[in-house]
Each structure stands twice: as C-alpha cells, then as structure tokens.
Design a protein that fits this description.
Mean pLDDT: 92
Helix content: 40-55%
Structural class: alpha/beta
CATH architecture of one domain: 3-Layer(aba) Sandwich
Order of helices and strands: HHEHEHEEEEHEHHEEHHE
Shape: globular
Distance between the termini: 53 Å
Low-confidence stretches: 290-302
Radius of gyration: 21 Å
Largest sheet: 10 strands, mixed
Number of strands: 10
CATH class of one domain: Alpha Beta
Number of helices: 9
CATH topology of one domain: Rossmann fold
C-alpha cells in the first residue's frame, strides 16, 4: 500500500470500521474453521484488517501482513502493540520478529513481510493459508493483476474478503452544480496507474466478482459506504481540497469555478452543514464445495 501515510490510514480506520459489512465479515470468519486460522492480508498498511477481524474470528490465528512500504511496516508494529496495550492483552516478540498477542486462551501470531505485490505476487503461497483479506486495495490494481490473483485462487481455492473498494459514488449534501464535473475528474484520476498497471477503479469489484465466479467461487457483495459528517470536519476539508486539486489538474480551464466551489464547501464545513457519502463495496468469495449427484458412487478400488 505504498503512497499512503500512517497518518492517513489512522484517520480513515474508524470510518472503515463503521462502514464494513458485518454479515460478510462473519461469513468469512465462519469459512475458515481450522485452528490456528492462517490468514494473508494483502496491502496490509498498518494492520487495520487484523485489528478488526481477529476478535471476530476468535481462537488461535496466524496472520501474515504483506506490504511494500517499509515505513508502513514499522508503523504496523507500533499500531499493533498500541492496540494490544489498549485492550490489556499480552504482547511479546520472538527471535524471528513475529509478535504474539495473548487474548485469554487464544494466541494470535502476527508476521510482517515486505513484498512488492505487483512484481512478486506469485511468491505468495496461498496453499499455506486458510483465507485472504485486503482492504481499500482492489480499486488500485489492474485487470491483469486481478487475473493473476484469480489464477492463484483457482489453483489454491481459499476464502477472500476484500473490503472498501470505491464504487464511484460521491454525494455531497447539499448538492452543488459542479459536483458532477469534479466526480468525473476524480473517476478519471482513479483510473490512472497506481503501481499495478492501469487501475480498475470503480470497476474493480465487478471485475473481481466475475472472474472468481468463473473460477468456481460463490461471490457476494455488500455496500460499505463512508459517511463523513460534522464530526469529521478535518477530513471533510481534506476531501474538498483533494477534489479541487484533481479537478484543476484535469480541467485547468475551470480552475476558478472549482475554487469557488471549494470556498463554498469550506464555508459549509465551518457552519456544520456539509456531509459527504463516499461509496464503497465489500466482496466475499468462497470456494464452492463439490456437490455430487445422489446416484454418484466412487469407483471400486483395483
């Protein structure tokens, strides 16, 4: 998840936690029944998936958190230690650098690995895990990258929970005339190269669902929209400034109009009258069990 600061990830974590679909998360937890449950988290950032899902999954677990950015891996260890301390859980580190969190009788082992998921995706050994997770990641990758991951999942079928992929909805309340132009600029920007080829952006969930269904998975999706309101004034201000910067970059002739839009939006933030909904979707893919017809019998041993 290179390119995202620890500060930004900390800012978005409570919004992500509130937006995620609980039903899909519970289904994922139920699908990985063995002990310890071994989970690979792709583009792990500071470990938000671990912090949300580990208590839900419960029991002994072994997490491998993958990220390209060494700064995020450093922040990851710090945030996991802070999380454990907040809950008064046991926290220790072994000679390999893995940490262990003790929660009652359960033991959660957490390992971090620096890996470029574009160049070295195939180095992952999905056959050694029980489930795969990722958050706010699918919309950054290309269709070619998704094909590679789906090929790996077809050879080693494992449950996949991919949360908080943007879907193109961005609704400012109250609405203004330039909202649509700025949304179109954002979608164009979202489809640039984020280090994995031309990003799928808002098409990512549908493309992933289609390919996994073709590879024998049962796929479900659910909405996981952010609602940024008056209690998130600083973040609203950042969203306004981001929209302005992208709009001016892609449509420089409209810079003065976009600046007026931004000034009006900042005034609404100050007055406590602005809210923003950003559309996301969660995806859960489960390998379909083999169902034999009632008349099927195994051939006799020879």
């Amino acid at each position: 998840m290179s390119g995202f600061s620890p500060e930004w990830l900390a800012q978005r974590e409570p919004l992500d936690a509130a937006a995620r679909d609980a039903g899909l998360a519970h289904e994922f937890a139920a699908a990985i029944a063995r002990t310890p449950r071994r989970i690979i988290d792709l583009g792990a950032g500071t470990g938000a998936n671990l912090r949300l899902l580990a208590p839900l999954i419960a029991g002994d677990q072994d997490w491998l958190l993958i990220d390209k950015d060494p700064a995020l891996l450093v922040a990851q260890r710090r945030e996991i230690a802070r999380w454990a301390a907040q809950h008064e859980w046991g926290f220790s580190e072994d000679a390999t650098g893995a940490v262990e969190i003790s929660v009652g009788a359960a033991r959660w082992r957490v390992r971090s690995q620096e890996l470029d998921l574009h160049a070295s995706l195939e180095q992952l050994r999905l056959q050694d895990c029980d489930g795969v997770t990722t958050t706010a990641f699918l919309d950054l990758v290309s269709v070619e990258w998704i094909d590679r991951l789906c090929h790996m999942l077809s050879r080693s079928p494992r449950p996949l929970l991919a949360t908080l992929s943007v879907d193109g909805q961005r609704r400012w309340q109250p609405a203004m005339a330039d909202d649509l132009r700025l949304l179109q600029a954002f979608e164009q920007h979202q489809a640039g190269d984020k280090g994995f080829g031309i990003a799928l952006g808002i098409a990512a969930v549908d493309e992933m669902a289609l390919r996994l269904a073709r590879n024998g998975f049962s796929v479900g999706t659910a909405r996981s929209d952010w609602l940024i309101a008056d209690e998130h004034r600083a973040l609203l201000g950042q969203m306004i400034d981001e929209a302005l910067a992208i709009g001016c970059e892609l449509e420089p002739g409209a810079a003065s109009e976009f600046a007026q839009w931004a000034a009006h939006r900042h005034a609404q933030v100050a007055a406590g009258t602005l809210a923003l909904t950003i559309g996301h979707r969660d995806l859960l893919a489960l390998p379909r069990p083999i169902v034999y017809p009632d008349s099927f019998t195994l051939p006799a041993a020879r």
